[in-house]
Write a structure and sequence with these properties.
Number of domains: 1
Order of helices and strands: HHHEEEHEE
Number of strands: 5
Number of helices: 4
Strand order of the largest sheet: 2-1-3-4-5
Strand content: 25-35%
Structural class: alpha+beta
Largest sheet: 5 strands, antiparallel
Amino acid sequence: MARNSTIGRSLSAGHARLALFVAVAAVFAIHTVVVFTADAQARAEAQVEVQSLADAAALGSAAELPHGAVAVLRAASRIIGSQTQRSRRSSEQKVQVGHWDAQRQTFSSDAMHPDAVEITIRLRNEPPFTALSGSSEPIEGRAIAVFKPAGKTLVAQARETSASAAR
């Protein structure tokens, strides 16, 4: 019984190599699952962050519509800039002033009397594991807010998980 007291002694050299290979493969598989899960979580959190930022910028800048397009752009830039500096993420923003057609549910940027603001924010996705998972596509958030004399209303928002979802 003393001869077979350890597993290493009872296995042949071939079996020992096979056991080591299986153990290394199992550790690699577990590591891969953890990395992809962490990356997916980071992307989901970034999507919520960028959509919330688009909503806040649209609502905040729509309040400036009575003061003109320049005031709208300044308000949107101030809101977006303060949030992106805090999160230290690089982003692109597009701010459009136009008209919201409630009946057709469409935004038109060539309106004579603008009553709405459309904000689109693209966030470059840079979580820690992007290089391993290959999910480096930008995350996009879009929101439209309409200014009404009684207040402002967020009327439409589109959530894009990536740039390819918009295609």
